[in-house]
Design goal:
- It is a single chain.
- Helix content is 23%, strand content 35%.
- The longest helix is centred in the first third of the chain and has 19 residues, at 34-52.
- The strands form five sheets. A ten-stranded antiparallel β-barrel has the order 1-10-11-13-14-15-16-18-19-20. Strands 2-5 form a two-stranded antiparallel sheet.
- It is rod-shaped, with a radius of gyration of 41 Å.
- The protein folds into three domains: 47-83 and 263-315 and 407-526, Porin (Beta Barrel); 94-142 and 163-242, no CATH class; 321-397, no CATH class.
- The chain has helices at 12-21, 25-28, 34-52, 164-167, 172-185, 215-222, 230-240, 252-256, 308-316, 341-353, 359-369, 376-391; strands at 68-78, 85-87, 94-104, 127-138, 147-149, 158-160, 195-198, 204-208, 245-247, 263-275, 279-285, 289-291, 295-307, 408-421, 425-442, 450-473, 479-487, 492-502, 505-514, 518-526.
- A hairpin with a 7-residue loop joins β15 (425-442) and β16.
- The chain has 528 residues and is of the alpha+beta class.
- Pfam families: DUF6588.
Length: 528
């Protein structure tokens, strides 16, 4: 009896072991090949990339030269929709199946039954030849792709079950077995070659013709015999190998343990400084920050933006605010007996634009509104003094660096790098985003501690180039360093947000919509 090989089972025990015992995303992929590991962790890569491209601006304008602030944000990145499952790709791992083949000696080409006593048998009565014939079958011909959980999916392990009828559809496995068996026995004397039969004195008795001439006759004559059940033998052989493949489930329960479920929080620290020519630069850096029990992140970033509207204002040389001088003719009702409090209110609004003193006029108008006509003359005198000051203001008094357009618009470009350590594996990525930022700020002057409020919005075109590094253990139990690169699904985002300033502290919140949407909230301290 010759031994043709050893059965190499699917590493079911290993897969069951790690599926049940490994409790974090980093180690759950150690026995997934690179393509499946990429698909399994892809949603997390997209979430991290989208999160790191969040929170770069809280207004569309830029800081003035040497203006400086530090912000602390918490970006909550939501699960990418429809990414809780992926199509598992069954690898082409060769599986060595040992098929127990037996050939009865009464199937040999003999003319007289008396000759059978001279034909030797194996250890099994009536069997002329038997062996475990090695048949190599790729794993992806035995199991088939199905939707299974990604890292953000449900935690129950998925099982790819072996279905002989499905795998053998069209007799694919059966025909493969017959071809392999014939290739092994076609050179066996008596089966595929002539058999020289000798008696006990070693004298040639006769020459038996081959039982089968070729693969076709072997298939038609031998495999169709009533007492030969090759198909049943093949099915039972494969069934006893326990080919079911158990795959890691997701870790939705880890994300659900966070204060807000169905997402991941990312803390972001950023500093911004104003530069000449209506521009600013932003930097980010962080130590290793734990994200619940999922992993730890560390990042650096550099970027900046330039104010489009400020450059347009200067280029177009828009009319200054003080071009239309105020004079007595602008307020005919003010200096008449028909003066009304609302006429004075218009004066107050115009004087504000010129940074003229309005406190005394406002106080007198309050008394006038309450029914005191004796303050009218003094109020008219104060207004006349203000008009004289406005007349002496030069046309160039306006700030040439101020945006004269009704909205602020800027262009920003940012690049960042992060490393996300998950214990048994690591994700690192370079993320980029180019954005058009539009907003409007309102700065009322009637409350000293209220610095104003604003709204901002924008669109961004982004990319994430992600690398996955881990130690892969193949079906033979051999480990090796593995890596795979892929792109995040985050390519476009839109956002809208609002902020308020109290003293020198900004408070803001914005919503980012994209492949992985995010809510960003935080505060910033303005130093200049």
């Amino acid at each position: 009896m010759k031994k043709t090989g050893q059965i190499i089972y699917i590493p079911i025990l290993l897969l069951v072991f790690f599926s049940r015992l490994l409790s974090d995303p980093g180690t759950s992929i150690l026995q997934l090949d690179t393509e499946n590991a990429k698909n399994y962790l892809s949603p997390m890569g997209t979430m991290l990339g989208a999160g790191m491209n969040t929170g770069y601006f809280q207004k569309a304008s830029v800081y003035k030269k040497n203006g400086f602030d530090v912000t602390l944000d918490l970006a909550f990145v939501m699960f990418p929709p429809q990414r809780t499952t992926y199509d598992f790709i069954v690898p082409e791992t060769p599986i060595n199946v040992l098929f127990p083949f037996k050939f009865p000696k009464n199937y040999l080409k003999y003319k007289h039954s008396a000759l059978l006593e001279y034909i030797p048998e194996t250890d099994t009565d009536g069997i002329f030849y038997e062996d475990n014939i090695s048949i190599t079958m790729p794993l992806n011909t035995l199991l088939f792709s199905e939707l299974v959980a990604t890292v953000i999916g449900v935690s129950n392990p998925d099982t790819l079950e072996f279905d002989f009828d499905r795998a053998n559809r069209g007799n694919v496995l059966y025909n493969q077995m017959l071809e392999r068996v014939w290739s092994e026995v076609q050179n066996i004397k008596g089966i595929g070659k002539e058999y020289y039969l000798y008696n006990e004195e070693n004298r040639l008795i006769t020459i038996l013709s081959p039982a089968y001439k070729d693969a076709e006759s072997f298939r038609e004559d031998f495999s169709e015999q009533d007492d030969v059940d090759l198909l049943g033998t093949l099915q039972s052989t494969l069934d006893t190998m326990n080919l079911d493949l158990i795959l890691p489930g997701g870790f939705d329960y880890l994300f659900n343990e966070l204060p807000i479920s169905n997402g991941m929080p990312l803390p972001i620290i950023q500093a911004t400084i104003g530069l000449p020519n209506f521009s600013e630069i932003s930097v980010r850096a962080s130590p290793l920050i734990p994200i619940s029990s999922i992993g730890s992140i560390q990042y650096v970033s550099l970027g900046g933006k330039v104010a489009i509207t400020n450059h347009l204002s200067k280029l177009l040389n828009l009319s200054p605010r003080y071009e239309n001088y105020l004079d007595i003719n602008s307020y005919t009702k003010i200096f008449s007996s028909n003066i009304r409090p609302k006429d004075v209110k218009k004066v107050l609004n115009d004087f504000k634009k010129y940074d003229l003193e309005i406190h005394e006029i406002d106080s007198l108008n309050t008394l006038f509104r309450q029914g005191n006509p004796q303050v009218v003359r003094e109020m008219q005198h104060k207004i006349q003094e203000g008009l004289l000051k406005a007349r002496d203001m030069p046309k160039a008094q306006r700030d040439e660096d101020e945006n004269q357009l009704p909205l602020d618009m800027s262009f920003g470009y940012y690049i960042n790098y992060f490393k996300f350590d998950m214990g048994g594996s690591e994700l690192n990525a370079i993320n980029k985003i180019a954005s058009i930022q539009i907003g409007k700020s309102f700065e009322p002057r009637f409350i000293s501690w209220f610095g104003g409020m604003g709204i901002y919005s924008g669109v961004g075109f982004e990319s994430s180039n992600i690398n996955l590094i881990y130690k892969y253990t193949d079906t033979l139990g051999e480990s090796d360093d593995a890596s795979v690169s892929f792109s995040g699904e985050n390519t476009f985002r839109g956002l809208i947000g609002t902020r308020i300033r109290i003293l020198n502290i900004d408070l803001y919140i914005d919503y980012n919509i994209g492949e992985s949407s995010a809510i960003n909230a935080g505060f910033g301290i303005k130093f200049k």
